[in-house]
Amino acid sequence: MMFRFTNLKIGIKMGFGYGAVIILMLVAIVVSYLGLSNSLQNSTELMRMTRNMAAVNEVGNQAIAIRLNARAYLVHQEEMYLEHFRQSQAAFDKALERARSAVKNPKRQALLGELAQKARNFEEGFSKILELIGQQAEAYGKRGLPNGSVMNETLGQLLEIAHQEKNPDVMWLAMQARNQMMLTRLFLQKYLTTENSTDFEKGQIEWKKISGLVEDLKGQLKDEKQRELLNRFGQAAQQYDAAIQDIHQAISQRLDLVHNNLDLNGPAMDKLVGEVIDSQKEAQLSIGDQTVVENQFDMTMALWLSLGTGVAGCLLAWLLARSITRPLRNAVTIAERVADGDLTVRIAANSRDEVGQLLQTMQVMAEQLKTMVTQVTQATGQVNSAAAEIAQGSADLSQRTEEQASALEQTASSMEELTATVKQSAEHAGQANQLASAARHQAEQGG
Questions:
Q1: Is residue 101 within 8 Å of 48, Cβ to Cβ?
Q2: pLDDT > 90: what percent of the chain?
Q3: pLDDT digits (tens, 9 = 90+) for 259-315
């Protein structure tokens, strides 16, 4: 692998090094991106579950409001609490719809479905209770009170007639019946307040005593008007007793619905809301723990990849520099030896890149220089031999030149003597010429 790498061109080596570092950086970036993507996904899921938790909490709050308003109405039976109950019921339905559309987990969906069923059971039970309260109010207001008033009125009239007739037996029986009736109505009022079956049973005991007193009155009454009043009392008593029984039945059914419906479905609703919230919390904790683990893993991977990228970059840079600078140093050393005249150096090119080609070229250059030096040395020997011959010829030529110089010196001396003679002759000729000119001048003057 190293041999192949060293045979690559320098540009390819640098491209390979940079490419490897870039690839490692891209891997680190991809790993970091995937880690951040997972973290973002988990954060998004946690935010979604937080919103779901808020929706479920709203469902729980409205469920509690439904129970409180229902209980307040049952205690006070005021229209205000009934209106609050209906508002809470509408808010609960909306909150539950939002929660069911937001929650995707099958388990929590099933719990919310069960919660919806419990809420329907609670609302149906409360609706039946409202009907029973209406029946109770109708029985008491339209039958109980009017017939109670009729019974009290007829007994009062019987007492008045007996008093006028001075019939102590009738007065006593009518007074006893009236007292029993008042006691019965007192227990009824108490029963309506406490809704305790013991109070109803006590009232029934006292009510049955009235029947005996009425029978005794029948035996004592002789007047037709008194008998008519007693018959009227008996009819009112029958309707009053029927109203009491209807009231008792309505209260019993209402209490049964409260105990077996409201008191069961209400806490069940709270329990289901709690289970959904606990499931949400468990999922949030799981996702939170998973996010921490994944983030730690991603951080570790990113750290090691970054360190690996740095180490790989340094290693590749060292290998690349080594593959370039080492042969270049060899080339410089060889060039210095060649510059010093050492042409016996052997250059080993271990690569085929530009540096290897340079070393091969330097090897060829060194061999060619060696050949040229050999040729120059041979030529120099030949030149030296020729120079020796030339020197010998030059010595002979110098001797002959000296001899010729001596002859030339003699010739020069003769020439100097000749020149002096010629000069004297010239001077004599000049003097003769002057004399001739003077003679001619005198001749012309004399002529």
A1: no
A2: 32
A3: 999 999 999 999 999 999 998 888 888 888 888 887 788 788 878 878 888 888 788
Give pTM, 2 decimals.
0.63
Neighbours of 146 (CB within 10 A): 14
Tokens of 158: 């019987």
- Write the CA distances from 178 to 90, 117, 152, integer angstroms: 50, 52, 7
Per domain, the residue ranges of the chain are 11-167+252-301
- Domain 11-167+252-301 grouped into CATH 3.40.50.2300: no
Block residue for tokens 């590749």: 316
Q: Dihedral sign for Cα 272, 277, 278, 280, please.
A: positive
